Amino acid sequence: MTVKSRIFVHTLFFFLLLQISMFAQEPYYKQFSISNDVTFAEPREEDAKEDLVFLLNRKVRELVIEGDKPMEYFLMHQVTRLQTDAGIESMNEIYISLDEGAELLTAKARVILPSGKVIELKEGDIREEEDYDGRGRRVFFALEGIEKNSVVEFFYVEKEPINSIEYGRMMFQRNIPQYDVSFAIVIPDFLEYDIKSYNGLPDAQLDDTTYDGLNVYHLHVDHIPAIQNETFAYPTANLQRLEFKLSKNTSNNTKNFINYSVASKNVFNNLFVGHSKKGLKKVKKEVKSLKLDKLNTIEEKIIVIERHIKTNFNIQEAGGGRYRSLEDIIKARISNESGITRLMLAMFEEAGISSELVLTSDRSKVAFDPNFETHTYLQSFLMYFPQTKKYLYPGEIDYRYGYFPGKYANNHGLFIKKIEVAGLETGAGKVRWIEALSHLDNNDIHKINIEIEDDFEHTIINLDRAQSGLNTINIQTMMSFLNEEAIEQIVNIFVKYMGEDTEIIEHEFLNIEQEDIPEKPFRVVAKLRMPNLIDRAGNKYLFKIGETIGRQSELYQEEERTLPIEQSFNRNYDRRIEMVIPEGYKIANLDDLKFDVKFEHNGAVAGEFKSEYTLEGNVLKVNVIEYYTEVSLPVEIYPAFQEVINAAADFNKVVLVLEEA
After folding, report:
1. Which residue, 87, 88, 105, 93, is CA-closest to 33?
2. Cβ-proximal residues to 196 (8 Å cutoff; 6+ apart), any chain
3. DSSP conformational letter for 630
């Protein structure tokens, strides 16, 4: 259970135990085992070239009461055909991870060779590691004698003390084709679940067959195709999955356990209030030391408070949890994300700044569904300021006011604020949309001045590059703390992007102090000598002007696109190129610099690549703009989106022909 999940724990589960402890049942999972009578599915033709295919994939999650202790039993039965050498290599060993307190009840495996010969794994072949890579226990067994088109079957059951039956998530789709997929979630029959399927997964049904004392929710799918790994997409977010949550206890006629009203009150009680007088006194002293009364605007105060906390306090997810109270956090200068958020809320309130806490999901993994209230979506904190309509991300030091990871934007979230009811303070939550930052908030502006040396062997480039917003805020925040090796890597990214042969004559980074963030852009000014931009062709010279914008993404996809378009954030590129044409020469193909490719969505331009030029004497000026205004687009837009992306790649290949005037 994550730190964020803990803030929702309440007495519901322990109350349920009083009801459940009266019931006992024959475990549902015991009806399943490895059997020689099982006939496996035959893969479709389109899956014949895959490295491996699941011919059967069965899972069962079951709550069983043993005495007065609730346990979860988890059954996995998987049959895999290994169709290539890579597939064989991926299944040389089978691993089963075990959480703390878990017990492996049974584990069986066998290999069925193409000849029909069966190799049974013995119990003594199973090995156990207490700690692997710091991630806990696991058991594993090696498989030998596997050939192409061998079938590997394994079956295991584990049990562990249950953390929660209140809500959960199951992912079904993978990057491997699957056949004969089934899942059952089993609970005592006086409990009921609400279950919702996503991305084409069939709905789970309450099994009509009567199981004594049990409710069995079951689904079966004949075939689930492999998810495609496509550029500008979030495959994980598009996986077929289901969400489940406890909805009713018929033994005492209670229902609607999991809702955002209760969650909002719990979050409020855990993070907004409950502070000691000593803790609040320390907060008041901390705020007073910042001299906020000398600042003119709310934004200035927010920036100063955040900068103070993120400069002087350490955020540690592991080991910081014991510093929970305000007095302990301020004294130790350390806490986890929840503790730092608690401190921020208290300091903003002391400063008279209204703020709301937002809980949301990572849309690159699972987008927040506003129509299914479950705590699985409440994974990450943002802070929202109604007076400025901007956000703050408390969880990491390298994001600052106004900017937060793009994976939390263009998504719904639960906004929680303090209200007063009958003279008492409490938390009220409402699901609202989290807007993505505008493309104009995430700029990458290049000023490129080009001079060709007299011998046409090298090119001198004066570069002035400024980045703002999510393009660079994490680098800008950390620059003053980086060592020489890390700074050299940044030089390679921001200065040598035109080519590895770039010779840096001089360079300087600007706006890298904490006080510059977020008002001033991260900026580099450099003088470069480029040996690889000019080729000779007879009495002409070929100048690779397109390479001055750096290598661009290319989308030349032959297969049909299957996933929606997703980008981490909107962005804007503005490149201003000036080139001094050598005396006695002219450019024969200036119109090759002209580009204007765009696409629309919902009646407005959503992306464009445009290049145009002017010629003033012997000075060529090229303006290149590129922008994207929507981070999420339907798959139908992909061909037009593809054209804009490829236009940038095509400009990168533009070569100017210099001939004698």
Report:
1. 105
2. 203, 242, 243, 244, 369, 372
3. -
Q: What is the distance between the alpha carbons of residues 393 and 416, in angstroms, rounded to a whole number?
A: 15
CA-nearest of 437, 448, 368, 432 to 404 is: 437
Distance (Å, whole) CA 326 – CA 332: 10
> Per residue in 405-462, pLDDT tens?
999 999 999 999 999 888 889 999 999 999 999 999 999 999 999 999 988 989 999 9
Residues 514/311, Cβ–Cβ less than 8 Å = yes
pLDDT tens string 310-357: 999 998 875 555 678 999 999 999 999 999 999 999 999 999 999 999
Q: What are the structure tokens assigned to 318, written together? A: 């592991």
- φ, ψ dihedrals at 408, nearest 5°: -100, -10
CA distance 650 to 661: 27
Q: Which contacts qualify for 493-499: CB closer than 8 Å, 24 or more apart? A: 494/465, 494/467, 494/524, 495/463, 495/465, 495/524, 495/526, 495/528, 497/550, 497/551, 498/461, 498/528, 498/530, 498/533, 498/547, 498/548, 498/550, 499/530, 499/532, 499/547
* Alpha helix ranges (H) inside 218-355: 260-267, 277-288, 298-312, 326-332, 337-350
Q: Is residue 431 within 8 Å of residue 414, measured between CB atoms?
A: yes
Tally of CA atoms within 13 A in the half-sphere of 571 that contains its CB: 17
Distance CA 649, CA 546 (A): 9
Does residue 236 carry a pLDDT above 70?
yes
Q: How far apart are CA 139 and CA 159, in angstroms?
A: 14
